[in-house]
Amino acid sequence: MWTPPNRSLPNPVTVTPYHDEMAGLEIAYASGASSGSFVNTALFFPLYLREPMVCSKAIIANGSTVGTDSWDLGVYRMTDMTTGRMDLIRSTGAVLSANANVVQESGTWRVAPANITTGVDSTDATTYTTASVTLKTGRLYLLSFVNTAADAIVISSIAGGGTWTSRSSTQYNTTAHRVSIWSRVPTVDYTGTIVVTFGATQTSGRWSLNEFSGVDTATTDGIVQQATGTGNSVTPLATLAAFGSANNATFGANANTADSTTTPGAGFTELSDDATATTPASFLQTQFRVDNDTTSDGTITSGQWGAAAVEIKADTVTPFVIPPSMPGVPDIYLGFSMSGTTATVLRLASGWPLQGAMGMLELTTTFPLRSSLIPVVLTGARIVPLVGFSSRSLVA
Question: Which of 174, 263, 305, 385 has its CA 20 to 30 A from that of 320?
Fold first, then answer.
């Protein structure tokens, strides 16, 4: 006789580090709940669900003091059990901590970035090759590139990971330098190098490859608009038009001939800034802002500069679903990070060695959460905040 399989109780309305779904972490607490600061560390809690959970809200229990910090809460899938690489499914982006002694929630899911590789080659050549990288299906990749020559020409083609598309490009320092942004959304996973080709010999190449999750890539790879700027001053900038949505993000590539260290513009997170010298001199910095900023700018020692920027379209349509992950297959993790320690959260001190045995991971000084990362096994006691996800709104 055939019968349906046994079915456990459904998932709870909310999942937090205090639930059984978090590998039974509730037995690891060393002290009672209290209000206190959260160290500037990203924590990752293994999450076991019996069935998919559609998320309506991300929630955090604020402590008694509200500062100027922001929090970021997301869900990751470990896609490589050998290296420990985890790829973000969705996250809130930076949410300003507000209101003391209350549960705060956010139902907005944002774009999240990660720098994949940077490189430089000072040789005269018609092709420049990156280090081997892994590109994931459905994610947006932006390759920022600076090339130099008497006439720094437009890239003719890019090979590796599918078809790349030019999004923003300008010469600067008269015609001797060019900065460009190219985009690609792979239809299959790709591991290998990326080869940039020119139709004539260039005197150097410098590049930065960045990855983005949470992007609506259905049209033009998720690139809404582009802008460029050139000049000779301390402030490289590219000015975009008004954004199509408050949820869309800003990405910029600032290049110059004078300064190996570019200070990112206000509100921007620096993704890369390679100081390796080239001849002729060229430098490249990339930056990201989770929300709208029509001015992608930075600060350098006065010199010739070129800037390129794009608006990235956030995915506001696709439901946020946490997939199931049963015990023995620890590939789904809840990730939490805070921008500093001035705000407080409701949290418990949890003890060692139970945390390590239950698979908690950490990554220091990581805010906001990245689109992909490789954390390490937690090696000591940590404060466990009361954060999580809900399938419905909890705050009236």
Answer: 385
Preceding omega of 4 cis (within 30 degrees of 0): no
The token pair that represents 238 in the structure block: 């590219």
What are the phi and psi torsion angles at 289 (to 5°)?
-135, 130
What is the tens place of the pLDDT at every residue in 153-210? 999 999 999 999 999 999 999 999 999 999 999 999 999 999 999 999 999 999 999 9
* Domain ranges (residues) in the chain: 14-109+318-390, 112-312
Rg (CA), the chain: 22
234-243 confidence digits (pLDDT tens): 999 999 999 9
Q: What is the predicted pLDDT for the residue at 347?
A: 85
User: Which residues is 314 bridged to in the sheet?
Assistant: 215
Residue 349: enclosing H or E segment and its boundaries?
strand 344-350
Measured CA distances, 386 to 14, 18, 54, 157, 169 (Å): 11, 7, 20, 49, 45
Distance of alpha carbon 192 from alpha carbon 185, whole angstroms: 15
Structural contact between residues 11 and 328, judged by C-beta atoms closer than 8 angstroms: no
Q: Name every residue whose Cβ is closer than 8 Å to that of residue 347 and which is 6 or more positions away in sequence.
A: 33, 34, 35, 36, 38, 63, 383, 384, 385, 386
Q: What is the pLDDT of residues 326-383, one digit of tens each?
A: 776 779 999 999 998 888 899 887 655 555 556 889 998 888 999 999 999 887 777 8
Domain 14-109+318-390 CATH class label = mainly beta
Of 255, 285, 291, the closest CA to residue 272 belongs to: 285
Closest CA to 133 of 145, 121, 110, 117: 117
Q: Is 360 left (phi over 0), alpha (psi -120 to 50) or beta?
A: beta
Question: How far is 66 from 100, CA to CA, in rounded Å?
Answer: 6
Please give the Cα distance from 50 to 53 (Å, whole number). Answer: 9
The Cα-based distances of 147 to 97, 118, 137 in angstroms read 42, 14, 28
Cβ within 8 Å of residue 121, ≥6 positions away: 128, 129, 204, 205, 206
Scan for tokens 């229990």, then name that residue.
61
Q: Token pair 């982006």 is at which residue?
A: 93
Report whether 280 contacts 203 (CB < 8 A): yes
Within the chain, how many helices (H) and strands (E) appear?
A: 1, 35
CA separation for the pair 368, 79 (Å, rounded): 20
